[in-house]
Amino acid sequence: MRRSAATIYTSINADLMLRNLRLTVLAIAVLCLAASALVGARAQVSKPAEQTAKPVEAARTLTPQERRGRAIYLRGESPSGREIGATVGELDVPASTVTCAGCHGTRGEGKTEGGVTAGDLTWANLTKPYGHTHPTGRKHGPFTEASFARAVSEGVDPSGNTMLTAMPRFRMSADDVADLLAYLKAIEHDRDP
Predict the structure, then answer these.
(1) At what angle do helices 174-186 and 145-154 cross, to 10 degrees?
(2) In Å, what is the CA distance from 119 to each residue of 36, 101, 143, 181?
(3) By the 8 A CB rule, do 83 and 97 touch?
(4) What is the distance between the alpha carbons of residues 74 and 95, in angstroms, rounded to a whole number?
(5) Is a pLDDT exceeding 70 seen at residue 20?
């Protein structure tokens, strides 16, 4: 069957119109994506310095003191080579067997194990101005560096309450306590515990 020239012309014209329509839709999609990317980039540039500085702070590297504190927190080992001891109940053990991270989590977030809850050790949490009420009902105010050192070595919270027996009492140097404190103040920003 032969098609007339008008039929062929109409068919070719329809194909061209469909092709042009597809190209137009594609061009509109590309323009929309480009506009979206431009708006996003402009929003990033126009953010106040405070907002753009936060990711830089979160990604900062640890200081030497914080790294020494991390070794104590994660492994119970003093980078100075001095032994850190611990007492759990009436049992004396090396701190490496009862590490901070073992009970409080690698990020200091706290966790519950065997019915005992080890609290959140992030410095922001420890120093909350309204203090803490523990699941056991024990209440105390916010920690300071001195009260934290006392809690770690003597098992006494800022209000003078005795902490649970499950909390080891550590024997470590003042330098090691300072390093541990430095790390706890930075633990929330440590991306490589």
Answers:
(1) 120
(2) 44, 11, 13, 16
(3) no
(4) 10
(5) no
